[in-house]
Design goal:
CATH architecture of chain A: 3-Layer(aba) Sandwich
Shape of chain B: globular
Helix content of chain B: over 70%
Number of helices of chain A: 10
Structural class of chain B: mainly alpha
CATH superfamily of chain A: P-loop containing nucleotide triphosphate hydrolases
Strand order of the largest sheet of chain B: 1-2
Strand content of chain A: 15-25%
CATH class of chain A: Alpha Beta
Number of helices of chain B: 15
Helix content of chain A: 25-40%
Order of helices and strands of chain B: EHHHHHHHHHHHHHHHE
Number of strands of chain A: 10
Distance between the termini of chain A: 34 Å
CATH topology of chain A: Rossmann fold
Oligomer: heterodimer
Number of strands of chain B: 2
Order of helices and strands of chain A: EEEHEEHEHHHHEHEHEEHH
Largest sheet of chain A: 6 strands, mixed
Largest sheet of chain B: 2 strands, antiparallel
Chain lengths: 255, 336
């Protein structure tokens, strides 16, 4: 099978004051894969996400997206190229109906380009996108105020904000965190469907059990450094990873 | 026996908006919804006709402040840019129109619109480098620009230096003067209110204010949308400046006066910042009050300050919010 390289991260570093938040991290990602990024709290997962998507300036290192050097691009240009991201802290427009939250991404140059000027009514398109991820139109969920939606819907709304851009790669920052088991159970098939639709996914996660089920490969960060990379099975058995998570040599089962 | 009374309150605003079908089926409810707009339209059209020529001129100048207040309110409440550059807009618009009229011989009919567009363009270019700034930092920079422009003109002596450009063509017909700016105010206030409430770009503007990251992650450049908003705001101010210079027949350094930057803030405080009509009402109250206080001579500023302090300390919601509350909540006494 010939694989197409979609994202290439080379020796990316970032320091905040004296703290090396991300230190010489490199990885390759192929089109259609799901990659997980895991690590203990403060290991630099979100910072790495911010560095790749241009929300924070890199100290050094290069990022290539579809063979284009995007290292110095501003955030909106990277999103415009098809590398979308979600945020850990969700800030929708609380006083507006859910579907109105997708108007800005649908207004973007990328959405206009990908629809070749035949987008139609943005509100209608936005409701269609929302319905695909489980905002039941018949129950009038897309019309509910975003501020009144439960967390599970908000996470999906955030994902929809990316999907509205018709992206090729989405970096999801902790979409599973804070969700109940049943909500996660409904999110997992959604992620798998995105993969089938040809979208490459990077998932920054704390919920290892669900992640390991769907990920093709996993990257482990600790104190800003990459300590392991491999298939979920390899990571599961990696001594260094166990040590980073639990300290010492005791063995626990991943939650 | 004493009558016992109880105050009953009916929130008509909520009722009318909740029962949308009911609202359009009853003339009374339609009038309730359209009433404020109609009062505004008829108020602005009738007011100039019933006041003396002296007060007509005061209203013309008040109109310029109204435009500036709308511009300030739009940028601050809907785009998140606290812009104290009103004086810059007025100055650039006024000088441009003056230059076009005096040096190139264009009639005001052409010079005013040209100065509006070109001035807005110049102001946007000037603000471009500081658009990434937010809140008070942007406010400070925008406040410094007009001061700087005034000093530059005084120091270098360009455009007539401290004397300004005199003997511009004057708009002579006082009816044209007043209705030009009043009708423009109506167009602008309804246009901008439509833009921010019903158009898709209004949501983008709101995102620029509240949720910069989500807008960036949506593939939209914050700076471009801020620049577009500044262009709209600056165009209003530049029109005001161009209009003023042809009202006075003179474009001078006083067009860069700090009043043009500060009064919109005061108008927003007095009128209420919730909706666009607040600054409009505030400016229409403050400028005539300031004019009426002229009898007190130099003490004028003291009384003016007292009015402002009263609003800041005791009536923070502003006049319009208060009126709206009273309008929407129908209160009456009922016998228990």
């Amino acid at each position: 099978m010939n694989k197409e390289l979609i994202l290439q991260v080379k020796d990316v570093s970032k320091s905040f004051g004296g703290v090396k938040a991300v230190n010489n991290v490199s990885f390759d990602l192929y089109r259609g894969e799901i990659m997980g990024i895991i690590g203990p709290n403060g290991s630099g997962k979100t910072t790495l996400n911010n560095l790749i998507t241009g929300f924070i300036k890199k100290d050094s290192g290069k990022v290539y997206f579809k063979d284009k050097d995007i290292s110095r691009w501003p955030g909106y240009k990277i999103a415009d190229a098809g590398l979308a991201r979600t945020f850990q802290l969700l800030r929708p427009y609380p006083t507006l109906p859910a579907f109105k939250n997708l108007i800005p991404p649908l207004y973007s140059p990328r959405a206009r380009r990908t629809s070749r000027g035949k987008l139609g009514d943005r509100s209608a398109v936005s409701i269609d996108i929302l319905e695909e991820v489980g905002f039941e139109r018949d129950a009038r969920v897309p019309y509910k105020l975003a501020g009144a939606l439960p967390l599970g819907y908000l996470k999906r709304l955030e994902l929809c904000r990316c999907l509205a851009l018709k992206p090729e790669l989405i970096i999801c920052d902790e979409v599973f965190s804070g969700l109940s088991m049943s909500e996660i159970a409904s999110m997992v098939p959604l992620m798998e469907r995105l993969q089938r639709d040809g979208i490459t996914l990077i998932m920054v996660e704390h919920r290892l059990r669900e992640l390991f089920k769907i990920a093709n490969k996993v990257l482990v960060l600790n104190f800003g450094e990459k300590i392991a990379e491999g298939s979920p099975q390899e990571i599961f058995n990696d001594e260094k990873v166990k040590q980073a998570y639990f300290g010492g040599g005791e063995t626990y089962v991943f939650s | 026996m004493m009558q016992e009374l109880r105050k009953e309150r009916l929130d008509r605003g909520v009722k009318v908006r909740a029962d949308s079908i009911y609202a359009i089926s009853s003339l009374k409810e339609i009038m309730f919804l359209m009433g404020p707009g109609l009062i505004l339209v008829f108020g602005l059209l009738v007011l100039p006709a019933v006041v003396s020529p002296y007060w007509q001129r005061v209203l013309c100048i008040a109109g310029v402040y109204v435009l500036l207040s709308i511009s300030f309110g739009f940028l601050a409440n809907y785009v998140g840019l606290v812009c104290l550059g009103g004086a810059l807009f007025v100055g650039v618009g006024g000088y441009l129109s003056g230059i076009l009229n005096a040096y190139f011989g264009l009639s005001p009919v052409l010079a005013i619109p040209l100065a509006t567009v070109a001035g807005a363009f110049v102001c946007t270019l000037l603000f471009l480098p500081c658009l990434p700034l937010r809140g008070v930092y942007f406010a400070i920079i925008s406040f410094v620009y007009p001061l700087l422009a005034g000093r530059l003109i005084a120091a270098t002596g360009v455009f007539g230096g401290t004397d300004g450009i005199a003997e511009l063509d004057v708009l002579t017909n006082r009816w044209v003067n007043i209705y030009l700016i009043f009708i423009l105010i109506l167009v602008v206030v309804f246009g901008i209110s439509r833009l921010v409430n019903y158009e898709d770009i209004g949501l983008v503007f709101r995102g620029v204010k509240d949720n910069e990251q989500a807008i960036t992650a949506s593939g939209l450049s914050i700076t471009i949308y801020k620049a577009q908003a500044v262009f709209i705001g600056a165009a209003l101010g530049c029109f005001g400046g161009a209009y003023l210079s042809h009202l006075y027949g003179w474009a001078g350094m006083s067009l860069f006066a700090i009043d043009f930057s500060i009064l919109p803030v005061a108008a927003t405080v007095v009128g209420g910042s919730g909706i666009l009509y607040g600054p409009l009402l505030g400016a229409f109250l403050l400028v005539p009050i300031s004019e009426a206080l002229r009898a007190f001579g130099t003490l004028r500023i003291v009384f003016y300050a007292i009015v402002l302090v009263f609003f800041v300390v005791f009536w923070t919601e502003g006049v319009l919010e208060y009126v709206r509350r009273k309008y929407e909540q129908f209160e009456h006494w009922v016998r228990v």
